[in-house]
Specification:
The complex is a heterodimer of chains A (428) and B (462).
Chain A lengths: L3 H48 L4 E10 L2 H4 L7 H6 L2 H12 L6 H8 L6 H11 L7 E7 L2 H8 L15 H12 L3 E5 L1 H5 L12 H32 L4 H13 L4 H15 L7 H25 L3 H9 L4 H30 L2 H5 L20 H9 L4 H32 L4
Antiparallel strand pairs in A: 1-2, 1-3
Chain B lengths: L2 H26 L13 H37 L10 H15 L9 H40 L6 H41 L2 H6 L3 E2 L14 E2 L2 H32 L2 H16 L2 H23 L8 H26 L2 H9 L4 H30 L2 H6 L17 H9 L8 H35 L1
Antiparallel strand pairs in B: 1-2
Helix pairs in contact in B: 1-2, 1-4, 2-4, 2-5, 3-4, 5-15, 7-10, 7-12, 8-10, 9-10, 10-12, 11-12, 12-15, 14-15
Classes of the chains: A mainly alpha (428), B mainly alpha (462).
Amino acid sequence: MLTGEQTRVRVAASLARRYRQEFLFRLFGIVSIVIGVGFLLFLFTTIIGNGYSAFWQTTIKLDVMIEESVVDPDGSRDPETLAAANYARLIQDALLEVYPEAAGRRDRRALKSLVSTGAAYILRDRVVDDPALIGTRHSFWLLADDEVDMLIKGHVEAGGDEALRRLSDRQVGWIEGLQAAGRIKKRFNTQFFTAGDSREPEMAGIWGATKGSFFMLLVTLLLSFPLGVAAAVYLEEFAPNNRWVDVIEVNINNLAAVPSIVFGLLGLAVFINFVGLPRSAPIVGGLVLTLMTLPVVIIAGRAALKSVPPSVREAALGVGASQMQVIFHHVLPLAMPGMLTGAIIGMARALGESAPLLMIGMIAFIVEVPNSPTDPATALPVQVYLWADSPERAFVERTSAAIIVLLAFLLVMNATAVWLRNRFERRW
Amino acid sequence: MQLSTLLLLLTAASMAAFWLGRRKAVAAVGGTRAIRNLHSLPGYYGYYAAIWCAVPGLLLIGVWLAFSDSIIMARVTSILPPHLVGDSGGDLSLIVNDIKNMAAGQFANPARAVELQPAVELYRSLTVSSRWILTVLLAPVLLAGFGYAWSRLTPAFRARNRVERVIKILLIMASSLAVFTTIGILLSVVFEAFRFFQKVPVADFLFGLTWSPQTAIRADQVGSSGTFGAIPLLAGTLLISGIALLVAVPVGLMIAIYLAEYATPRIRTWVKPILEVLAGIPTVVYGYFAALTVAPLLRGFGDSLGLSVSSESALGAGLVMGVMIIPFVSSLSDDVINAVPQSLRDGSLGLGATPSETIKRVVLPAALPGIVGGVLLAASRAIGETMIVVMAAGLSANLTINPLEAVTTVTVQIVTLLVGDQEFDSAKTLAAFALGLMLFVVTLALNVLALAVVRKYREQYE
């Protein structure tokens, strides 16, 4: 048995150690928060630092003579003839005009590769749109090749062993010459926002993937919102206390935690192999994502319904409304903002999802921009995955840029959800 | 006739039925002034008529779409030249595919294009006439449904109750979808996994130590029979998930403790949304970050220490995955820590314990079951996570516990087996479904366990 004095001595002796532990414990907490926040900052700075330069694209100014003999030999101005002509030759001629010393075959090829292969298509579209250009001399800003783009942006070095570089010393010399002549300029990269996928980084864009994601989310929203609201209404307002309802509730909770890739297997086995829907189509992706987001929408919907006070129901019942009328005329409108918030959060999650889409073939290389939910398409996060796998250096910045766009979409959706919640949700 | 046109017609017919039904009900009691003599509001009579129009029509269209194609195909394949319709069913399904592709005007199989031409013509004409028959059939069905409803529309008819019953059935169907989804997952995975286990014994799959899913493409090919031992995949999955949990559990738990017990409201309002951002980042972004930034950093760091770190090391994928599940752990722990009654803290503090002693000796033990539940849920999420490991972990199965080497996981293998060309009777493709079944069972078990633990804990204080 300790006396009071002994206890006091013991406690006093241990105090320093205990306060040190207290300090360390708090420090550990702060360090943890710093780790979380620091990682987020690290992630964002890396991605933005890698990606912002992709919003600008190097172009080369060339004076192209649109020779009638090349573009339209029979003089018919027929759009098909114009579209089939060899525009790459016109561009090559224009380059040779600037650097006439590139005489040999290899030199010519090296010179030609400074300009993107896609530049010919852009030139073609310009000429088909405006046949009056034929036979005239016009200066165009043409897309540079991705290697040139990387050099201009400083992502690859011009020094070092020539054999290890994609651009030879000769080519670097030409580029420097073009730059000195003011023929190289970085312009806003509209191609990135308007084009579909491409093997050439300078031609690749996210419009195809964005539209694919849009169609997919449209299908998801149209299905999961009504179904989720209906299920939430039933479970919250009507469900009797029986075995079947228990089964439903357990299932919803479990589905919310099933790995997304398993939903992809379901989509592959049921929607594609059994029902026979087309592979790579946003409609299949939308169906799979519907099944995935449904639990989120149902859980949010139930919470929203629960927050409507019973007095509203009782008042409506008191003046003679049926149970169905109480819910559809009074409770549901009051719960709607909460339900919409849940739906938007579910949509945001669906937008970032990519694993199940890999299973249903949405990672095919698709150049065409989809025009309906049944056209083959890819989605934004899958596009990120595809580009991340590409070896070209220029795809690194494009991947990061696509991530920036994806995150921007998510930010807008979540901000809308928060705004909806703050603006319309009533506290009772 | 296009399907969308048919549906549009059906909608128009239902709207007309609504209008007629409503008008009949109002007219039956002699105008809008006397509608109190109706049992229900006039609109319900309209809805009743519309339902009797739309539901039979939709049923007919649904049944037709489900069965017409296979009936047509049976007719079409019966006129095929006999040598094309071989003994094996697999050939027939390929031919059916060719016919459909050619009918849709897409790519034609050059080897068979000429022979299939008559079948394609027949398929085209039958499809067109099938749609027309459907359209013609639809009219009497709609009329019959509407006629039935019309005959029952009298002022005493309890239209509202009938309509509400239909709505209730729809609500029940919507909420049962979750159950059907689960059944669908189980059936699709179990069925294909069963076919896989007919080719590969279950014991070989569960206990085999080598995973090399290459199967021979030609029968006479040498040395690629394929072995499907899942142990290396399981070990890799556990290694990466273990690293992730080692990161996420202490950090997430400490964040939750700090926010719940120490932080001022100001800090809380700042840190919580930031963690939510961390939770909202798509996993493909984490994967890209792990592969492009973290893995080279680790390799450089390892080189400077004289260690050889694989560029697809388990450590890199695990670390990033750990950061991904930090918000998950912290928000779950936050809930359970806040659920511990304040009186327990007050009692401990009143006895002279420091805040950290209170947390360590009182709050955490009280919250422990909930925290364990949260950790189990986090583990299930880590095991099922796909994109990070697909992008940052290795492809080849490697039975090791060295976190600096490349390992592969169950989800990575599912993706690599199923992406690209698939043949639905090869063991290679079916193996993905067996892995999917394993993944589903493991995560489901973890979830059920976690929920049971959490529920039991909640009962204590409520």
